[in-house]
Amino acid sequence: MHFIIDADTGDQIVGWLAPDNPSEIPKFIISIPGRDDIEISANLLRADIRDFGLHSTGQCGFSIGPDIVPDLAHLPEVEIIEGDNHLPIYRRFQPDHVERKIFLFDCTLIPQRRILQEINNRFSLSYFNSERNGLETTIALIANPFCKSIFISGRSLLLRYNDLLKEKGYLRMALLREPHEELAERLYFLNFLVKEGSADSSFAGYTTGVKSLLEFAANLPFNDQKALTSAFRGTTEQQRRELMSPMTKVFGCDVDEMPKNANVSRALDALADFDVVGTRERFPLFKDLVTAAAGANIFGDEEPVFFQSVKTLAESLAKIGIVNDLLADDLALFKYVDEAIGESLSDPDMLMQGGS
Fold first, then answer.
1. What is the pLDDT of residues 7-43, one digit of tens each?
2. Which candidate, 56, 84, 66, 94, places its Cα nearest to that of 9?
3. What is the spatial distance between Cα 49 and Cα 163, in angstroms, rounded to a whole number?
4. CATH 2.60.40 occupies which residues in the chain?
5. What is the DSSP code string of 246-288?
6. In CATH, what number does 1-92 get?
7. 94-106 pLDDT per residue, tens
8. What is the pTM (predicted TM-score) of this model?
9. Domain 97-356 has what CATH class?
């Protein structure tokens, strides 16, 4: 997907969108607080987009004016959403929106709903679970030239987007987590999705890259150490690939590259250049650093929710040899980062440079 907002003159919003299928006529949803959504199809021929090869007919532009929204010029809040995948492409800037562009690399699966809602309220556009979007769509979201308030988070591979993020002036942030606890929470969450029958519904986006683990997590004996060990020994090759060091994959691997020692070094080099690096275990510190870098507290009073059952399972996983082998690179990566943050606590100047 490609899109551009050309102008918002108050009484008219003009732009275009070329979907992944270049022969489709895109649809748009106009969302205004307190009103029913308005659905329209592309109503503007864009020969330039056709000639550029992004759309087969050029019927991909839109012009939203008083004929569609009579009082458009007087509405402070208007949002335009792509109709098929429900991705927002434009939202009018509000006085309380944070005028920054931020990409937060966070490898967790389970949604922290209250934090995400707080972030959504503070930015004109926000996108979560970035890994579920294709390469071209993610590039379009990052490169959006018309919006000055964007927050993106997820498990996208850093190497694919790092140069573009720097070019477009994004604050790059990373939130890491102790690997055994991250794995424990993943397994509980995937188990929940299967048992609730929601693995194929609205939660499907959270399983990008870990779909083969749904079957593995469905009947895991969480409270039986011996049976849990046997379950990991019986994993398929694909399941082991999906279990293997997810943080190292995000920060140090390219597409289809499996992590190894060299990728840990690559990840550390990349993180050393980030604006903010933190860990879930030191979230208050991470929040303070993000607030200083962004010039606003984008998390409000919210913090991640921790579950004792996750900690208990993490302790069991740490005693299983095959699990430690699968997480070896993440364990090394997290240890280096956590120790660096600990050392930087005694040096405020170093801490404000990123904590890595």
1. 999 999 999 999 999 999 999 999 999 999 999 999 9
2. 66
3. 26
4. 1-92
5. HHHHHHH--TTPPP-HHHHHHHHHHHTTSSEEEEGGGHHHHHH
6. 2.60.40
7. 999 999 999 999 9
8. 0.92
9. alpha beta
